[in-house]
Amino acid sequence: MSGQGEDKVTSWFAQQSRAREERFPIGIGDDMAQVNMGGGSVLVTTDMLLDGVHFDLASAGAEQVGYKAMAASLSDCAAMATRPVCAVVAVALPTGFGEDKLKELHAGIVRAGDMFDCTLIGGDITAWRDNAGRFVINVTMLSECVDCVEPVKRSGAKVGDAVCVTGELGGSIAGKHLTFVPRVEEAIEIARAADVHAMMDVTDGLVKDLSRICAASGVGAIIEAERVPMTHAAKEGNDPLEAALYDGEDFELLFTVSAEDYETLAGEQSIKAGITRVGLITDSGRIELQRGRDREVLDVKGYDHL
Amino acid sequence: MSGQGEDKVTSWFAQQSRAREERFPIGIGDDMAQVNMGGGSVLVTTDMLLDGVHFDLASAGAEQVGYKAMAASLSDCAAMATRPVCAVVAVALPTGFGEDKLKELHAGIVRAGDMFDCTLIGGDITAWRDNAGRFVINVTMLSECVDCVEPVKRSGAKVGDAVCVTGELGGSIAGKHLTFVPRVEEAIEIARAADVHAMMDVTDGLVKDLSRICAASGVGAIIEAERVPMTHAAKEGNDPLEAALYDGEDFELLFTVSAEDYETLAGEQSIKAGITRVGLITDSGRIELQRGRDREVLDVKGYDHL
């Protein structure tokens, strides 16, 4: 693999893949993979979260950590406009973790799953053998298509599409990253009401994740600075726009639809999180920021896990 | 939860479960869970393996670690007599892990998967932020039923059944735990040729795993010491029988069938790994060892992950 970072690694893995399309319609590089098996079709996502990287177990508490781990996977199900069904959860426990904390963790997992009728059906519990080993949690979640709506991939954005987000962006680290409600219901409503061309959840920052949709779709985009919705936490910081563009773990939906479909969606009062058009898909191949009359090409920075 | 250890934790989790049987025919506590979803039926297993616990990355090398992680999950598919279809793999990388080792890991994952046409379809790569974080790999595998053979659970053992194993037991730590070939083909052949009442793979030692089948089925068992097949590695140790009864990670099949079906299976030359009857299911509720004319009740010890 050439170059740096997570996306290069992901594309190297995707290039190696020998998955046949009739068996695996969606493979490496989207929010979930799709598999035709067992007489039907299922989607699957797996996510590993580490103490000291994705959360601080000592300050967050085991219940919130269990909630966050499940919620992050539920957000992947939302990213494809699919309905979560069940999850298996594996954990590595530090020595002396104890029963009470394990029960708290379980309570958080179940609290998140119960919001969307997503059932814990199995798992694996293992333990480090010395004091140096740290807590790890891995959630794998299965989802299914809703009615006749196909899973929404990242690769369908078209020039002229409205770029939209749910909710508000930035400053998640102040607390939202532990307490967010995944946009499962919103995603299904949006996909029912409109022909969604591309969608994902915002986990590594708006600019970086939008660049992923653009790369998968072979397009570019303009973000309109004045339109980017910011959380209260982002507004309280030194540079609210910077926070809204680049902070990780918003867990909002980022999607593109035609201008007409955007008008339809804007009129849907039932979508609780609210939808904002933040920009436009272009043929530039770049991510640009429009601020008043100025337009600049943005660096595609943002959270990189590697 | 009362008492100690992994099995107590697993049963506490199973008691908490609210999985409805029509949606989830097999839940927490078997080798895989079964889910009816997406218009079909799939089985799922997840396993987390830790550097310094399940392998030593420095001495085994990343390729063998990737192989072992996949092979352990393939063995779970075998344990239910199901056919593996695909896997998602998540890893936590220590700082400075590097591209070369990641490619070796990938090669080992693919080598194991290719044996049984099990495709890597996605994953998650994350990294520790400091030098103290250690390598973790989590494999989640999906499998499907073969022809009309239902997945074989642990709970169907009947008094009078022959207790059988494939291959040889003990001493896996000498090398087999990194190189074993999961008994996927054997499991399918056995389930086609006989009415298998209960099955699992031997991961925590014959006695402990047989006690799990007995607990799930509400029965007991006698192991006949003279009949237990031992690996060369076990025979080289101080106490070969002890190794064959209690060592972990044999990754052989342990199953029960009627006496008549055992005779049928014993005649099947095509089952490569070979099948040995090692004992008998009883109504005692205990695991006993018959050695010549002596019979003793065994301690259910063996590898405990907690």
From TrEMBL, chains A, B:
Lineage: Bacteria, Pseudomonadati, Planctomycetota, Phycisphaerae, Sedimentisphaerales
Binding site for ATP: G123, D124, R154, T203
Chain's role: Catalyzes the ATP-dependent phosphorylation of thiamine-monophosphate (TMP) to form thiamine-pyrophosphate (TPP), the active form of vitamin B1.
Keyword Kinase: yes
Entry EC no(s): 2.7.4.16
Domain PurM-like C-terminal: 174-290
Entry GO MF terms: ATP binding; magnesium ion binding; thiamine-phosphate kinase activity
Protein's recorded name: Thiamine-monophosphate kinase
Organism (species): Anaerohalosphaera lusitana
InterPro entries on file: PurM-like_C_dom (IPR010918), PurM-like_C_sf (IPR036676), PurM-like_N (IPR016188), PurM-like_N_sf (IPR036921), ThiL-like (IPR006283)
Binding site for substrate: H54, E249, Y303
Amino-acid positions noted as binding Mg(2+) 1 in the UniProt annotation, renumbered to this chain: T46, D47, D124
Stretches assigned to the PurM-like N-terminal domain: 29-142
Binding site for Mg(2+) 5: D204
